[in-house]
Design goal:
This protein has 309 residues and is mostly helical. Helices cover 76% and strands 0% of the residues.
């Protein structure tokens, strides 16, 4: 049976791609589908543009404006020349690192215990871990202020029970700040770690036991390495969130623990210096982005996001 020239022009080319009019129609359909998807995502993109891109761009612009409105690097030079800014950034990273470390020490054993309990009992215990999410951050911070102050419940009970003679300095210092921040941030570490632990195949532990490994050795050689993605994701999440903390250091630190967010608030509220505040925000934002980039070099972000769900 003879084959027409039109059939030849629409025959499949190497790789299975159609030629001629069919290929043009497919490309047109693909472009139409792309425009439809862009139209559907348009409101979300506009929202991101208005709430994130434009404010960040405005922040960058203000950081390069001097007091007289001219372009200048004076705010960034001030951060390099004045030692107080180095202390502020040092305190910010110190508090964030200490909070992350304490959350790991408390959260990993807690997540391990929850992963070993029956699912129904573990879910009931998980409600207690989630309780801080149901209370305002400001309320929780002032509750710790009531508990930790010199005439608070902890000092009062400690003196009455004879554990110490004088009120302990538990607030308006680094200790009070860390206590409040660990209480707030602990669920952010427990949830990713618990999710990672629950995804571990228990047959791996049984195989390690069958090969002669003790429970301790099986934990260190099998269970812990498999749970590291969740631990890394939770630690990164806690650390990044702690970098921008404002309320807890301001209340429980009593002005002695000044983080970047507190200095930004002081520049705006006390000195009305938007340029200095913007430069601090830009440096903090860039530092956070660099941290996330370094984390992406150590492990794939898809694994981090998957472990945190």
């Amino acid at each position: 049976m003879p084959v027409s020239s039109a059939a030849l022009t629409t025959s499949a080319q190497p790789g299975g791609a159609p030629a001629g009019l069919n290929a043009a129609a497919l490309r047109a359909d693909e472009r139409r589908e792309h425009w439809q998807l862009l139209g559907l995502s348009g409101p979300a993109l506009a929202l991101v543009l208005l709430t994130m891109v434009l404010p960040i761009g405005w922040l960058f612009g203000l950081s390069f404006l001097a007091d007289d409105g001219s372009l200048s690097l004076m705010h960034y030079r001030r951060m390099v020349e004045q030692p107080s800014y180095a202390r502020i950034f040092g305190a910010t990273f110190q508090v964030s690192l200490l909070t992350t470390g304490l959350c790991i020490l408390l959260g990993y054993p807690l997540a391990y215990v929850l992963s070993q309990l029956p699912r129904r009992v573990a879910n009931l215990c998980l409600i207690a871990v989630m309780l801080p999410f149901w209370t305002s951050l400001l309320v929780r911070t002032y509750a710790w202020l009531v508990l930790l102050q010199r005439r608070g419940l902890i000092n009062t009970w400690g003196i009455e029970l004879g554990w110490w003679d004088q009120p302990l300095p538990l607030v308006h210092n680094m200790a009070g700040t860390l206590i409040g921040m660990v209480h707030i941030m602990l669920p952010f570490l427990v949830l990713p770690v618990l999710n990672s632990m629950r995804s571990i195949d228990q047959e791996c532990m049984k195989a390690a036991a069958n090969l002669g490994a003790s429970p301790t050795r099986a934990f260190w050689t099998v269970f812990l390495p498999l749970s590291l993605p969740g631990l890394f994701a939770g630690s990164l999440l806690v650390f990044v969130i702690c970098l921008g903390f404002y309320v807890t250091p301001a209340v429980l630190g009593g002005g002695k623990i000044i983080m970047v967010s507190n200095q930004i608030a002081n520049d705006i509220e006390l000195f009305f210096n938007w340029g200095a505040a913007s430069s601090l925000g830009v440096v903090l934002l860039v530092s956070t982005m660099v941290l996330l980039w370094l984390a992406s070099r150590l492990t794939r972000l898809e694994q981090l996001l998957g472990a945190s769900r």
